[in-house]
């Protein structure tokens, strides 16, 4: 049984029904049936005058357990569609002859919130979280939320809460009229009890949300709002249907009446819950939470040490972004620069970052000064004597980084963590001039560091588990999703992303059209096609990165001619307003009619046969090499879990979350198909496409690409091992086939 409700009747005649499924009191069919039983038991009892519904442990309910959605449950419900929403919640609970009040602490989300909306009044704590975030799973609210929320807060606010999946606090819910009264946690249930009795005595209104109309906009206005919202949703997410379905269901209720709306809602949910999109988004939900669970590290029981003061070395784009992320989350930061003017520039960038947060509504103007007071600019290492963590974020120059690490070792206390924000260099090389290898770790932030939610944490074979646990904790406090990876050129995210532009160049040099490639890829769901990405990054950086990868992975790197040809024409990307695209004063990109001329020049440098490709071919030829690289990363143990790469691809590359991340998507296509395509292309176009051993092995078995590293934590490079090829037995636990097969693995590059 997955949870239940508990019924207790007090001497005052109020029955308390407590949803009990800790820790979040998630709903399940069992909980709902138990709630129904408790309500049906309480209603006819003579000693019950009113009912309060609440959740155990001060948490109302986090909503339905989403692991049952997306077809993973297998349990088929035989009940009629709408049974819970209409026959129970509406016809029994909402229509009850005794007042029912919800007492809400903690989360009241999704189905949990919908139960509360059915009640005749809601009392909450000020910090409770109330909302309908079902759309984040490709679902729509299924227990009446689409009908009741607009009737309680008006259409505009309801649409915002549902389509953005953003909850409101109890305090804000009170202002919106969603909550009738706010009470302190320890008085919550008693306040709800007396409210319920007051409703009975007609001293408080007895409201059935479904029948309210006072907050609903007039029909013509409502229709206009829905039309605009529908258009926006179509524009923002052309590959997704569930937002449009949600809007249709709301409209149906407004035009044909809420009961018809309820039925339409239940039918739509039934269809959506089995969709591939829901399956993918549910996977992303759990995968994201899973990134901070590192076998052999976070299961050691090491509590994170308290990090109070952090030093950031370098106030450039990355350093100032990192400092911003830290001070916004209440850390005290020392920002070190080499001279007065660079320091002023760095602090200036932090201010600009904070102001941009004000413009985006993420911070108030008044908070800027207080936040900035946590930033202390310095020119020497003297104030590093009490820092717990240093994050080095200077330019990608190995000698400079080595010198900084040697310097900070002299000034910092013994316990300080030394983190490096490199996206490229081997951390062992960076720490070569120190004796502190066990406290060196990579903290790879993504630009802009104070916005992008991803933090790639890079460990070497010598980084201590305590240091990893500490950085995970800092990451959590600054609201980043960490992905812990091993040490190698490009780490996991850079390596996975590298083939994105490489394949695109290869395709164009073999006959594809630049803009057709970008169009096919954005249609697939990427926000920017590969050529727009190269323009944004800038040709100089793109070439430097490319050289780095070509050096590290020569056997599979493609050396494009196209960028060099464009560079000869003084094009350098978006910053010069001329790259693959032309850019206007506002940075708006438009195709360049001259581009084909340069493409033909690049094509003429080799004697390849030009291809004709469909959009589907383009998508496969761009993404299968990424899948291939992801497989290498998994096989080498650079990533611990396939789902970590899914999150890395979604947060680091903006791969569409509704496709579940790179490996999840690849599995939906099948390893055999992907491998056979790569094999074919490698015959014609060379080793860039050659499938790696891991992919070939999985494809031969028709197996999933999911494999979890069991417990070994470090990635060893063969060239760094004293006795190469001796003893590195990496136990790989195969979860995909569920056979528990252990395979010895030796790797290197
Ligand atoms: C018919 C209905 O309309 C359909 C629905 O109700 S769909 C569900 C709607 N509910 C939601 O979207 C809520 C999703 N959950 C959340 O936003 C957050 O978990 C929360 C705000 C409730 C709590 O946050 P927080 O305290 O930080 O805990 P968090 O780490 O996220 O979750 C704790 C555990 O519960 C799990 N969990 C949370 N919500 C869950 C859910 N709805 N289903 C399944 N598991 C859930 C998490 O995976 C995590 O598991 P773990 O400990 O094994 O890693």
UniProtKB/TrEMBL annotation:
Residue ranges annotated for the 3-hydroxyacyl-CoA dehydrogenase NAD binding domain, each copy included: 310-487
Main location: other
InterPro entries according to UniProt: 3-OHacyl-CoA_DH_NAD-bd, 3HC_DH_C, 6-PGluconate_DH-like_C_sf, ClpP/crotonase-like_dom_sf, Enoyl-CoA_hydra/iso, NAD(P)-bd_dom_sf
Coiled coil (UniProt feature): none
Compartments where found: Peroxisome
Pathway: Lipid metabolism; fatty acid beta-oxidation
KW rRNA-binding (keyword) present: no
Residue span, 3-hydroxyacyl-CoA dehydrogenase C-terminal domain: 490-583
GO cellular component, one term: peroxisome
GO molecular function, one term: (3S)-3-hydroxyacyl-CoA dehydrogenase (NAD+) activity
Catalysed reactions, as listed in the record: a (3E)-enoyl-CoA = a 4-saturated (2E)-enoyl-CoA; a 4-saturated-(3S)-3-hydroxyacyl-CoA = a (3E)-enoyl-CoA + H2O; (3S)-3-hydroxybutanoyl-CoA = (3R)-3-hydroxybutanoyl-CoA; a (3S)-3-hydroxyacyl-CoA = a (2E)-enoyl-CoA + H2O
Any GO BP: fatty acid beta-oxidation
Signal peptide positions (record): none
UniProt entry keywords in alphabetical sequence: Fatty acid metabolism, Isomerase, Lipid metabolism, Lyase, Multifunctional enzyme, NAD, Oxidoreductase, Peroxisome
Tagged with keyword NAD: yes
Family under the similarity heading: In the N-terminal section; belongs to the enoyl-CoA hydratase/isomerase family.
Protein name: 3-hydroxyacyl-CoA dehydrogenase
Source organism (scientific name): Rhododendron griersonianum
């Amino acid at each position: 049984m997955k949870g239940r409700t508990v019924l207790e009747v007090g001497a005052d005649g109020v029955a308390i029904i407590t949803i009990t499924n800790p820790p979040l009191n998630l709903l399940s069919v069992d909980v709902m049936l138990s709630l129904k039983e408790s309500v049906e038991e309480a209603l006819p009892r003579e000693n019950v005058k009113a009912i309060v519904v609440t959740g155990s442990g001060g948490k109302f309910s986090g909503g339905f357990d989403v692991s049952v959605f997306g077809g993973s449950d297998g349990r088929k419900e035989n009940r009629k569609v709408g049974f819970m929403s209409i026959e129970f919640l509406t016809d029994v609970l909402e229509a009850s002859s005794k007042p029912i009040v919800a007492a809400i602490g903690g989360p009241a989300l999704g189905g949990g919130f919908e139960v509360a909306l059915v009640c005749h009044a809601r009392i909450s704590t000020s910090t409770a979280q109330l909302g309908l975030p079902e759309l984040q799973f490709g679902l729509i609210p299924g227990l009446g939320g689409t009908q009741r929320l607009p009737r309680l807060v008006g259409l505009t606010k309801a649409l915002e809460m549902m389509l953005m999946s953003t909850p409101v606090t109890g305090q804000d819910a009170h202002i919106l009229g969603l909550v009738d009264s706010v009470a302190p946690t320890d008085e919550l249930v008693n306040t709800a009890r007396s409210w319920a009795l007051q409703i009975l005595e007609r001293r408080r209104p007895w409201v059935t949300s479904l029948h309210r109309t006072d907050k609903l906009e007039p029909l013509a206005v409502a229709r206009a709002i829905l039309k605009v919202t529908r258009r926006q949703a179509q524009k923002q997410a052309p590959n997704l249907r569930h937002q449009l379905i949600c809007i249709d269901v709301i409209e149906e209720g407004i035009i044909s009446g809420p009961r018809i709306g309820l039925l339409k809602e239940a039918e739509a949910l039934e269809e959506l819950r089995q969709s591939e999109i829901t399956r993918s988004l549910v996977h992303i939900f759990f995968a994201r939470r899973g990134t901070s669970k590192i076998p052999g590290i976070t299961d050691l029981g090491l509590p994170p040490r308290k990090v109070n003061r952090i030093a950031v070395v370098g106030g450039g784009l990355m350093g100032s972004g990192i400092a911003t992320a830290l001070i916004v989350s209440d850390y005290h930061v020392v920002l070190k620069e080499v001279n007065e003017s660079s320091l002023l520039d760095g602090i200036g960038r932090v201010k600009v970052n904070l102001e941009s947060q004000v413009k985006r509504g993420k911070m108030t103007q008044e908070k800027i000064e207080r936040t900035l007071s946590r930033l202390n600019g310095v020119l020497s290492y003297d104030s590093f004597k009490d820092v717990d963590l240093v994050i080095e974020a200077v330019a990608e120059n190995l000698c400079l980084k080595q010198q900084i690490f040697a310097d900070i070792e002299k000034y910092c206390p013994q316990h300080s963590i030394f983190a490096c924000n490199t996206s490229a260099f081997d951390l062992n090389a960076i720490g070569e001039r120190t004796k502190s290898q066990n406290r060196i770790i990579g903290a790879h932030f993504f630009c802009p560091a104070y916005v992008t939610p991803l933090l790639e944490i890079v460990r070497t074979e010598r980084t201590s588990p305590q240091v990893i646990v500490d950085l995970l904790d800092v990451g959590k406090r600054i609201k980043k999703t960490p992905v812990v990876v091993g040490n190698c050129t490009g780490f996991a995210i850079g390596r996975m992303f590298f083939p994105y532009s490489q394949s695109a160049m290869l395709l164009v040099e073999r006959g594809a059209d630049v803009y057709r490639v970008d169009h096919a890829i954005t249609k697939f769901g990427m926000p920017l096609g590969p050529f727009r990405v190269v323009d944004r990054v800038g040709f100089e950086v793109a070439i430097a990165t490319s050289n780095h990868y070509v050096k590290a992975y020569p056997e599979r790197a493609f050396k494009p001619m196209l960028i060099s040809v464009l560079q000869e024409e003084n094009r350098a990307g978006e910053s010069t307003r001329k790259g693959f695209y032309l850019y206007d004063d506002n940075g708006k990109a438009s195709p360049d009619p001259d581009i084909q001329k340069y493409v033909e020049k690049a094509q003429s440098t080799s004697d390849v046969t030009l291809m004709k490709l469909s959009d589907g071919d383009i998508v496969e030829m761009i993404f299968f090499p990424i899948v291939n690289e992801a497989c290498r990363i998994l096989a080498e143990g650079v990533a611990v879990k396939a789902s970590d790469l899914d999150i890395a691809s979604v947060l680091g590359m903006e791969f569409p979350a509704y496709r579940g991340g790179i490996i999840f998507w690849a599995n939906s296509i099948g390893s055999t198909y992907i491998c056979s395509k790569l094999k074919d292309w490698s015959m014609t176009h060379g080793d860039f496409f050659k499938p790696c051993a891991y992919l070939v092995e999985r494809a031969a078995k028709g197996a999933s690409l999911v494999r979890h590293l069991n417990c070994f934590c470090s990635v060893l490079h063969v060239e760094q091992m004293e006795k190469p090829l001796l003893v590195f037995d990496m136990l790989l636990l195969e979860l995909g086939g569920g056979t528990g097969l252990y395979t010895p693995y030796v790797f290197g590059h």
